[in-house]
């Protein structure tokens, strides 16, 4: 891979610490979700992954939409990242909910979402590693 950009962030004190990007634009308090026994104060890694994947997938959808000459600029992607016990450790699962504009028919929308799933870097990184469900709403 010929890197176009490299993001750098440092996390200290794990899930109950802080995450800061090298340029300072990201500076977040981290916290364990209440559902996992924490205070629920602060952002957690699953929220960050959900936001990143949703944004990346929306960009990939825009890319394939432009190539197909289909306007998907008003599409919204919601990422849901679940964490749970898996064997001796923990695992993740993702659901991406894609809300397409009313002007995009169901067959075209499904084709574009599948194409976006092939070009999205997050999809390529997770493929074969964790389950990813695509839901068109």
UniProtKB/TrEMBL annotation:
Gene3D superfamilies: 2.20.25.10, 3.30.300.20. GO terms for biological process: response to oxidative stress. Belongs to the OsmC/Ohr family. NCBIfam families: organ_hyd_perox. This is Ohr subfamily peroxiredoxin. It comes from Streptomyces populi.
């Amino acid at each position: 891979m010929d890197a176009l950009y490299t993001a750098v962030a440092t996390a200290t004190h794990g899930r109950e610490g802080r995450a800061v990007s090298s340029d300072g634009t990201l500076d977040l308090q981290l916290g364990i979700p209440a559902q996992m026994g924490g205070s629920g104060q602060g952002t957690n890694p699953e929220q960050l992954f959900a936001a990143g994947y949703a944004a990346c997938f929306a960009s990939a959808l825009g890319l394939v939409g432009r190539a197909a000459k289909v306007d998907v600029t008003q599409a919204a992607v919601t990422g849901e990242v679940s964490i749970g016990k898996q064997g001796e450790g923990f695992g993740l699962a993702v659901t991406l909910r894609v809300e397409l504009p009313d002007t995009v028919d169901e067959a075209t929308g499904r084709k574009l979402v599948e194409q976006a799933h092939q070009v999205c870097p997050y999809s390529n990184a997770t493929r074969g590693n964790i389950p990813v469900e695509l839901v068109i709403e």
